[in-house]
């Protein structure tokens, strides 16, 4: 289902992947610095989640400014929260690369507001860009260290923007419940020599769904 989400004086293009049964939980998903919501990994994940009963709303927000992307993500969260079509008990925010930074930033901001009502259940970071390539000294970890909801990282062990030991170091300092799933030998784009894209996406999708299932409050299962 295609929708346009109001954002300031503009609209964000978005697509709902709707499960057959009425969902109680949703995932909001966005793309990295390049591309848009039709990035194959996002389309694949959205379809997988919807087929397992989780509503997925993916959206496009062009713009390389993190603050702008964060504002857009907040607008989408508000839109889904107030939606009459889908009355959800909670959502997980998910993003790929820069999209996961924006998601982390939204969660940190909302958790510092007094009106944090528990609507956001957790964060999924696909290829979190912990540092620029070859710039390991400047870590983008400030939001991660201030988040308290559960976080899943799915990263390639050969990601040039997320050195394995550095992410493990940051995660060990995080207060939130967290898990890292390493895709062996994958780069930042989740490409692995000798494996098809579909094969890698199936691994990612299965990991994300099983983690979501572990983190959905029991009373709603």
TrEMBL record:
Domain of life: Eukaryota
Domain KANL3/Tex30 alpha/beta hydrolase-like, chain residue ranges per copy: 27-208
Pfam families: Abhydrolase_11
Coiled coil: none
Classification via PANTHER family: TESTIS DEVELOPMENT PROTEIN PRTD (PTHR13136), TESTIS-EXPRESSED PROTEIN 30 (PTHR13136:SF11)
Descriptive protein name: TEX30 protein
Organism: Sinosuthora webbiana
Gene encoding the protein: Tex30
